[in-house]
Amino acid sequence: MTILSAWLWRMSYVGEPETAFGAHARAWGIALTIRNIGLMFIVLAFLFAPQIGDWLLGR
To answer: How many separate domains does the chain show?
Structure first.
């Protein structure tokens, strides 16, 4: 999915920026990038949940 995100981001700058495809590809590239960053934070939160819980409880 990251490869698709990067490809759409790149394709958005190949043609004229005011074309419909450029705007559409840029929007999808930004959306997938944000989603990938969010998924990364969720995975990290699950991986480090015990440490985070201990830190919050002051143990």
So the answer is: 1
